[in-house]
Structures are given as structure tokens and as C-alpha cells.
Amino acid sequence: MNILGKIVSVKKKEVYNNRRLYPIKELENSFFFKRKKFSLVKRLKESRTGIIAEFKSKSPSKGIINNIVPVEKVVKDYELSGVSGISILTDKNFFSGKNEDLKKSRSIVSTPILRKDFIIDEYQIIESKSIGADVILLIAGILSKSQIENFSKLAKSIDLETIIEIHNEFEIDKITEELDIVGINNRDLQTFIVDYDNCLKLSSRIPDNYIKIAESGIDNVNIILELRKKGFEGFLIGEYFMKRKDPGKICRNFIKSLFEINSL
Length: 264
What we know:
It is a single chain. This protein is an alpha/beta fold. 42% of the residues lie in helices and 16% in strands. It has a single domain, classed as TIM Barrel (Alpha-Beta Barrel), CATH 3.20.20.70. The protein has twelve helices and ten strands. The strands form two sheets. The chain has an eight-stranded parallel β-barrel with strand order 1-4-5-6-7-8-9-10, surrounded by four helices. Strands 2-3 form a two-stranded antiparallel ribbon. Helix 4 crosses helix 6 and helix 4 (71-81) runs parallel beside helix 12. The longest helix has 19 residues, at 3-21.
């Protein structure tokens, strides 16, 4: 079984257990559930940089990335740097994430927050709203087109935006009308190998009525300039920031460089 298969197998057990521990009714009565979202779509359309900065302490391919700096400091620094959005990994077993990281972040920032996880069940969408997320990620490689359509409708009904993440040309057919953003991931989730050209190869196949974001392997401003020419408006960057002692400082310098180039 490949890494993605293992993640999904563990995730099914996790969802089953969480349903019993935290019933949907309880989630719907939570503090964050009735709040109005901060729109990532709106922020990306208005932004001059489109940076979505990620908090990620570990990954299956890299192991520990940064388990020292607290999530509160990182997300606050990201916001002060002027990011368009913040991504929080909440998968516990493979990425050492937790829902509490997102809750803490929601309490201290007013930037749109993407819950980054492996969503395979409607329960997780309700859960995402209850912990303070504004956007959820739907991974085409683990979901059918009908699941993506139904999950997107549910998300919209509770004021969440949705990103579909695709990795190859075959998954483009899973894009549905209810989605808000199409993300192209340079990382193959079967092997976790990064192909930096994947976004460039698939960009022209994405319908123009969707905002496009690029994910994984972005580590310099020149890549962003090239991707912008292909119509990308958002750029999800995690490891490049998180592998440094002070992720917020690196993020701030990165965005400063983008502003300087934009002003030329």
C-alpha cells in the first residue's frame, strides 16, 4: 500500500472514532460554527502576491520539519507579513497536526484559514466549520466526482469555500461547478515526489472561471512570476517557510521581494 492509501485507511478509523466522541450536533453548537467566513477567493482577487502560507511541522516524506516554533507565533507573523491566506495541517498521524492548531489560529488572526487534511467524509466538513476553518481541501485522488460535488454543496451550505486539489490530467474531469478554487499540486501523493513543472503542464487545461493556485515546491519569486503568466493567482508555500528557525521572517522577506519586483 502506498503512502496515500495508508493515510486514507487510518483516516477512516479516525473519522469513525471522532463521530462517537464529538457528535455532529455538538459540532454545530460550537463557538465557531455560526461565524461568517473570511473569503480566500476575495483575498486572492485583491492580493498583489497571492501567498498562502502553511503551518506544517512534519510530513511523511521529510519527517520533522519544525516542531519547535509555536503555531500562534507563526500564524500571527504570517498575517503581519501580508499573506492572502493561512493553511493549517490538521492530520495527526502522518503530519503531527491537530485541530487545536486551527482553533488557536482562528482566535488570533483575521486571515482566511484553509484546513489542510484528507477529507473523505461529510463529518469532516462539519468539523472543519466547527474548528474555525474558512476553506477546505478536497483531494481529487481520493474522492469520486460525485463525492466532490456533494461535499462542495455541503460546504457552501455552511459558508465554507472549497479547493479541489488535482495532480494529473485525469483528475481534471472531477472539477465541478460548486468548487471555488482549483489547486494543482506539484507533489505526487502516491510517492510524495515533487515535479516542479506539473503546474505549468496542467494550467491550460483548467477552465478560466476558477481561481488557480499552485502548490508544493515553490521556493523563489521567479517561480511565482512564471506561474502568474499561466494564470495562477495563489501560491501555497509551506516547507520553504517552515524549515527555517523563524518561518514568519522568511515569509515577510519573500513577500517583500515580490513587492519589489512588482514595483519595477
